[in-house]
Every structure is written in C-alpha cells, then in structure tokens.
Amino acid sequence: MKKSLVPRVVAMPSPVWVVGSYDANDHPNIMTVAWGGICCSAPPCLTISLQKTRLTYTNIFQQKAFTVNIPSTNYIVETDYAGIASGKNDDKFTTTGLTPIRSDIVNAPYVKEFPLTFECKLLHAVEIGLHTQFIGQILGIKADDEVLDQNGVPVVGMVKPMISSASDRAYYAFGECLGQAYYQGLKLVDKNKNETNSHSPSK
C-alpha cells in the first residue's frame, strides 16, 4: 500500500556535478550541485539550479558561461568540500588541490583532474522560487582518453561518476549494468505483436 508524503525534493538519484565559473576579478571558483540534468538535444543543453545567495549564481550571470565537471568517485572528499565551503570566503581550488584550467571555448574554468567536462554558454535563466534554473548550451566537451570507448564516447563505467540521494543526504556509486536502453522494451513489443497476430481472424 502506498503512503502519501509531504511534497519535497526527494527524487532520486541526482547527479553530482561540480560547476566552474569566474568571478568579476577573473578568479576561478567551483561549486557542487545536485539539481541538474540534460534538458535538450538540439541544441545540446543541460540545466543546473542555484540559489541566489551563491557566488556561482552571480558569476554565471556576469560571465554568461560555466562548466559542468563530472568527478569520479576518487574525488568524493574534494567534491563534497566544494559544496560545503563558499567561494566568497575560500579559494576552493587551493584548498582541495584541484587544478583550474581556462576553457578555450567559454569564459569559465574546468577541473583538470575530473574525467569529463561540459563547456556551456548561458542560454536562459528561469526564476522559479528559491532556486533559479540556468540552461546552458553545450559548446564543447573535454574528456580524458581513458574514459572513452573505441567510438570516442564517454563510458559510465570508466568515468565512475557519483550520484546523490536527497532523502538520506548521501553519495552513491553506480552499480551493475542492467541492460541496453531501447532494447529491453522490445520484448514487450514482440509480445504484443505475437498476441495481436494470434487474435487476428484468419483469412
């Protein structure tokens, strides 16, 4: 039996992304976010949601650009710190030992040590409530060679990203592969065809 819950943000899982940006003085900053995802395929876009009090919020509006960096599970400490500390009071790159690299496509830094980065220009900003949703058009992608397959596509098992759960405020690693997308459901397509044919009147 299902139980009704009070509306709150306990959808799961959420990505663990580290957003890179420059402030007005060209100083690099990073911030960990969980409210984000892909939002359009043409043009390729992703979205993140930030509170107005965050330095990254101001930076993105000023620079009209940001990066989304996907850390591997090896960087859980640095990633968590980037979400705890404020760039207003701390140089998070120095504290974590991570390396800022200036994007050659957008005016934002990315994290050298993280295996996958999306370079985005600000396309839209939507005021929702406590959070503002930033939609960024992906203009470039940086990926380590070792996380790419033979077709040059990033593979989740090689990137080893983290996911988060808002309900228990915890990080998780990805588990086993359950099957290929757009293939599992074909079993029901075939089943439906067989059942339809079996009930069709004979000619």
Automatic annotation (TrEMBL):
<dbReference type="GO" id="GO:0016646">
    <property type="term" value="F:oxidoreductase activity, acting on the CH-NH group of donors, NAD or NADP as acceptor"/>
</dbReference>
<keyword id="KW-0285">Flavoprotein</keyword>
<comment type="similarity">
    <text>Belongs to the flavoredoxin family.</text>
</comment>
<protein>
    <submittedName>
        <fullName>NADH-FMN oxidoreductase RutF, flavin reductase (DIM6/NTAB) family</fullName>
    </submittedName>
</protein>
<dbReference type="InterPro" id="IPR052174">
    <property type="entry name" value="Flavoredoxin"/>
</dbReference>
<dbReference type="InterPro" id="IPR012349">
    <property type="entry name" value="Split_barrel_FMN-bd"/>
</dbReference>
<dbReference type="Pfam" id="PF01613">
    <property type="entry name" value="Flavin_Reduct"/>
</dbReference>
<dbReference type="InterPro" id="IPR002563">
    <property type="entry name" value="Flavin_Rdtase-like_dom"/>
</dbReference>
<dbReference type="GO" id="GO:0010181">
    <property type="term" value="F:FMN binding"/>
</dbReference>
<feature type="domain" description="Flavin reductase like">
    <location>
        <begin position="12"/>
        <end position="153"/>
    </location>
</feature>
